[in-house]
């Protein structure tokens, strides 16, 4: 297993841990500790209507567990097209969630940001590990 | 002497073509993300309301209050708990009674607070099923806090009359966070005992139940006028009705527990009886 592969696997496991923590707190009705200062406010984000997957009672963090779980499985194998596609799905979701935080709610949740950073890290590793396509033989 | 280089067997016929360095794509992605996030903040800055909506006229306020305090029983039954988050927890202590000897509902909040702004809607609706308010005035939460300018009412000059319960309210700060009202020593003791997180709004239902926070998110009514909220409450399927009427039903169930299910016209409905069971 390459160093990049191992890094991506560890980042995925960290993502599962943070997402699971947020999911457990959601079902316990507890807001995680987080400073409320300026544009940082976890309570506002995690108690908003966007904290659950539309029309259900399932927290968005549960989807995070699934995404990081699939990512962890993927990174047990060498990097390929599937890794790039899955990373793209993650990045698109992160951008949507950041849009909700900033534009709709006007605040940022630090715990959510932690998972977003982990997703971006996996995206960067996937790009750095992508199969070379720019060599040629006569 | 030939100008051609000797070719070794098994070696590449041509050196790998030098492509884009590996770090360029990740760096481009990071830069792209930074630009997108900056754009989000610009959009937020342009779309954040700076001033509260103009207050409704007295007659408009009256129409809104009449609408929300005379919702038909079928509306309450149709919504049930709706999308309300049940934050009402049982507490133990000496039964809280008001100056007239009836069970007391005590509210502590502040005008700047968006969660208080949200929670006043269902609280007014629920309390109006047991008695009558006067002196309610429209206001909005702070323009500079989260969920800015959430439309609501204030209890600062409100009076409440009921043959079943007493209602006492304290609005500690106005929407500019200037001191408005202070709890009495006895009220402060209730807050200290039952509102351990110190969050508002805090509601004590006769020391039998207490809730802290809003039972639905203020963004549910974000950007709406008082009239628009009132109109939405008449539609049981609306997002606002599910949140606000659902919350009002939960509050009603807690009050019914405190009054011994009086009046029966309110408390004996299957909806309230079912919600009472969820309060434990």
Protein described:
The complex is a heterodimer of chains A (138) and B (280). Chain A is 65% helix and 0% strand. With 138 residues, chain A is mainly alpha-helical. Chain B has helices spanning 24-47, 58-68, 73-79, 114-127, 185-194, 226-233, 239-259, 264-267, 270-279, and strands at 89-90, 104-109, 131-134, 137-140, 151-154, 159-162, 166-171, 202-205, 209-212. Chain B is of the alpha+beta class and 280 residues long. The radius of gyration of chain B is 28 Å and the shape is elongated. In chain B, helix 2 packs parallel to helix 6 (226-233), helix 4 (114-127) packs across helix 7 (239-259) and helix 7 crosses helix 9 (270-279). Chain A binds chain B through residues 29, 41, 44, 47-49, 91, 95, 98-99, 102-107, 120, 123-124, 127-128, 130, 132, 134-138, and chain B through 12-14, 16-17, 19-20, 22-23, 25-26, 29-30, 33, 36-37, 40-41, 43-44, 47-48, 85, 87, 146-148, 213-214, 217, 219-220, 239.
The assigned structural class of chain A equals mainly alpha
The percent of residues in helical segments of chain B reads 25-40%
Question: What amount of the residues of chain A lies in strands?
Answer: under 5%
Q: Tally of extended strands of chain A?
A: 0
Most extensive contact: A-B, 28 and 33 residues
Number of strands of chain B: 9
**Major sheet details of chain A:** none
Determine the fraction of residues in helical runs of chain A and give it as a percent range.
55-70%
Helical region count of chain B?
9
């Amino acid at each position: 297993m390459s160093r990049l592969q191992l890094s991506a696997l560890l980042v995925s496991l960290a993502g599962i841990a943070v997402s699971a923590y947020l999911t457990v707190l959601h079902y316990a009705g507890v807001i995680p500790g987080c400073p409320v200062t300026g544009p940082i406010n976890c309570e506002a984000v995690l108690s908003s209507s966007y904290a659950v997957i539309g029309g259900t009672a399932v927290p968005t963090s549960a989807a995070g567990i699934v995404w990081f779980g699939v990512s962890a499985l993927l990174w047990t194998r060498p990097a390929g097209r599937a890794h790039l596609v899955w990373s793209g799905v993650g990045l698109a979701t992160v951008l949507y969630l950041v849009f909700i935080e900033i534009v709709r709610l006007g605040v940022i949740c630090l715990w959510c940001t932690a998972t977003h950073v982990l997703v971006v890290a996996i995206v960067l590793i996937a790009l750095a590990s992508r199969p070379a396509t720019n060599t040629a033989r006569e | 002497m030939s100008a051609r280089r000797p070719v070794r067997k098994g070696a590449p016929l041509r050196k790998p073509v030098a492509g884009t360095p590996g770090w360029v794509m990740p760096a481009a992605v990071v830069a792209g993300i930074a630009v997108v996030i900056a754009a989000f903040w610009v959009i937020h800055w342009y779309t954040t309301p700076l001033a509260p909506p103009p207050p409704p006229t007295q007659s408009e306020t009256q129409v809104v209050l009449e609408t929300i305090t005379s919702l038909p029983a079928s509306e309450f039954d149709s919504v049930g708990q709706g999308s309300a988050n049940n934050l009402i927890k049982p507490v133990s202590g000496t039964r809280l009674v008001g100056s007239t000897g009836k069970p007391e509902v005590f509210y502590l909040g502040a005008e700047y607070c968006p969660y208080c702004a949200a929670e006043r809607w269902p609280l007014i609706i629920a309390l109006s099923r047991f008695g009558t308010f006067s002196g309610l005035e429209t206001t909005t939460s702070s323009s500079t806090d989260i969920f800015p300018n959430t439309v609501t009412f204030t209890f600062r000059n409100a009076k409440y009359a009921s043959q079943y319960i007493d209602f006492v309210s304290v609005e500690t700060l106005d929407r500019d966070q200037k001191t408005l009202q202070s709890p009495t020593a006895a009220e402060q003791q209730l807050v200290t005992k039952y509102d351990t997180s110190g969050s508002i709004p805090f509601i004590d239902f006769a020391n039998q139940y207490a809730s802290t926070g809003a039972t639905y998110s203020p963004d549910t009514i974000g950007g709406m006028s008082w009239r628009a909220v009132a109109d939405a409450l008449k539609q049981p399927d609306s997002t606002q009705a599910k949140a606000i009427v659902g919350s009002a039903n939960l509050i009603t169930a807690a009050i019914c527990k405190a009054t011994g299910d009086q009046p029966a016209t309110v408390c004996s409905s299957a909806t309230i009886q079912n919600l009472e069971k969820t309060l434990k």
